[in-house]
Each structure stands twice: as structure tokens, then as C-alpha cells.
Amino acid sequence: MTKIESQRRSFIVLFVHFILLISNGVVEAEFHNDLRNDLASRKRSISAFPIFMYDSDIGFGFGGKGVVKNQFKKNESFDLMLFGSTKGEQKYSFVFSVPDFEIRQGTEYPLALDVKIEYNKLLKSNFFGIGNGSQDNESQFPKETSKLEVTLSRAFKKRLVGELGFRYTHCSVYGFDPSWQTINDETPGAGETRVSAVSARLRYDTRDSYINPRRGFKIELQVELAEKILDADWNFQKGRLEFSTYRRLFHEKHILAFRFWMQHVQGEAPYHELSKVGDGWTARGYKAERFLDNAMALTSAEYRFPIINKLGGVLFIDTGRVWPEIWKFNLEDWHSNVGWGLRYYLANFVARFDMGISREGTRIFFNFGHVF
User: Fold this and answer.
1) Most buried among 95, 174, 245, 368, by the most CB within 10 A?
2) Residue-level pLDDT at 41
3) What string of DSSP letters covers 233-295?
4) d(CA 163, CA 160)
């Protein structure tokens, strides 16, 4: 494929996604479906899912995830996941929310609190260098991350939500060999680093569900400021704009979903805080953190359809790229993949399996929650 043909294909994909996003946003702007009432929202609910899976980046995995909602009749929820894998990943996460995400979706509330504690150890993490043209390699090394996030939010209107947050992240990157000519002691973020950041987020959200949206759209703007406080090592700013939209196709359980996401990091940041394209949440046909730089843009489209009972399927396409600066946005050299996946729908979360196919191979990912 010539360079001109590649640019033309990227432009067509982006243009079609953009038109569908905007048109669907206009159609759904007046839609709001509030089926919740106090009695229904305060019912006790438990969802549990055993984990036995395979992921291209972590090998065979095992563990479990569970959500308990309204144990204390305060519309609260407790979300716990314990996970390990044959390639050495260990991941433990705990999320407490009051009110619960799904209960407060589409409602006007004075204050909500979310606390997330996460530990993730990867024995085989990746680094391919910085830039959209970085070369693939097989060099892998341990990375260990601990994270605390606290978020306060308020719904000024049913559709308009503001959030203030604090994040503290401790990351250790070790066991690499400087002779690899990829990562070394001079790489920003190699060794032991700490990040302290405060954030502000504004969201306009007409979706009918937080867990499994079928109608509506979301526009979200986030600004994060990292400072050298609480023994932190980095000063940077991160801005993010995301637009996602959902509409029914053929039948109420057949859904077309689209997302456009842009992000820019400015200042002194470790490599694992840069904008990225590649993993189970961005471009699903590429290795985790495959392309890194200050700025990124990504667009994704999914067709979600039922198979049987709680099991559903997904067909998807992702395309994105990174730049040193966001104003250098162009339509050249985007990284695209297609793929398919399965979804298992529970009352309090969605279990997700995806297989992405790109020019660099096939990647398999298992996680929880829709990608967007």
C-alpha cells in the first residue's frame, strides 16, 4: 500500500467515525431514561466471576472478581479483584464507591466518593522507545505499580457531572539490560519513581447505563496536574478529551458504539505516564504500551450483539497514533487493527475477551468492563 493510499484510508476511517459520532450525539442529546427509584436502588446485589483465561501479555491467568452492592443499604458498592498469571503478573484491586457508579448514573446527586487501591506486578513488561515509529522488540523486564486514587464528584444536573481527584502512584521498573538499546538508566521512569497528581474532570453524560450503555453519549474533559509533593519525582500536566456515543441498531440489544479520544502530556513525565497506543484499552492488535509519546489520538468502533442468554459478541476496529506535540496532528502512519470479542453480562459488571489483529500479529486480552 502506498503512502497516499494509507493516508486516504486513515482519512476515510476518521471521517466516517467523526460523522457518526456527531450525528448520533445530536440525535441522542435529548434522550434520558431514568428507571431508578429509591426502593430498587437499595436492594442488595452480589456478582461474582471466576477468572481462568489467556492473555498475550501475561499468559494463563487465574483468580476472581466480585462486587457487593448495598450491603449496608447506603447505595454503596465494594469491588474486589484478585488475579495471578503464569507469566508472573499479580494484580489486586479494591474499589469502594458511594453511591455506586451504576446507581448514580443519570441522577442528580450532591456528592459521591470513589476510592481505588491497586497493586499490579508484571514480570514481563515492554518498552519500545518513544515515538510513533518505534520498532518492535522482544525485550521484557519487571514493572511493579501501586496506586491510590480518591475522587469526589457532584452531579449539578442529571447529565452534568464534575469531579475532583487525587492520585498517588509508586512505580518500580527494574531488571533491564542497558545493552538492549531500548531502556536504560537514563530512560525517564526507569528505576523507582513516584507521582502525585490532582485532577479535575467535567462530563456531560446522557448514557442510559454506566455498566452497559445502549443509548446516549458522553463528552468528558479531564485536566491532571502532577507536582513534586509527597515525595513525588515529576512535574507534568495531562489533558484528555473523550467523546463516546451509543445507539441501537436493528434491535434493542444490537448496539453501535463509537469513541474518539485525544490526550496531551506536557512537562517532565516518566515513560509510563505518557500517552500510549497499544493494549487492551486502546489499540487491541498491538502489545501493551507499543507506541508512546506526549500526544495521542485514537478512534474505535464496536458492533455489540447478543449470542445466547448473558453471552454477547463484539466486532471492532481501532486506529490511532502518537506525536511529540498535539498540534502536529496529521493523518499519516496511523496504527489500525480489527478484531472480535465476547462479553459476559452480569448485574454489576461485564467480563470481556478480545482478540485484535494488526500488521504486527494477533493479541488476546481478557479484562472487565467495556473498553468504552
Assistant:
1) 245
2) 53
3) --EEEEEEEEEEEEEEESEEEEEEEEEEEEEEEEEE--GGGSEEE-STTS-TTS-TT-EEESE
4) 10
Element (H, E) at 114: strand 112-126
Question: pLDDT above 90 covers what percent of the chain?
Answer: 79
- Is residue 22 predicted with pLDDT exceeding 60? no
- Residue located via cell numbers 453480562: 345
Beta bridge partners of 322: 296
**30 has pLDDT over 60:** no
pTM listed for this prediction? 0.85
Burial 160-170 (b: 16+ CB within 10 A, else e): ebebebebbbb
Rounded-to-integer distance, Cα 273 and Cα 143, Å: 13
Distance set, CA 206 to CA 77, 157, 318 (Å): 22, 11, 24
Segment 223-272, tens digit of pLDDT: 999 999 999 999 999 999 999 999 999 888 999 999 999 999 999 999 99
Q: What residue segments make up the domains of the chain, in order of their start?
A: 3-368
Burial class (CB in 10 A: 0-12, 13-18, 19+), 300: buried
CATH of domain 3-368: 2.40.160.50
Query: What percentage of the chain exceeds 70 in pLDDT?
Result: 88
- Provide the residue type at 226 as one letter: A
Q: SS3 of 156, please? A: coil
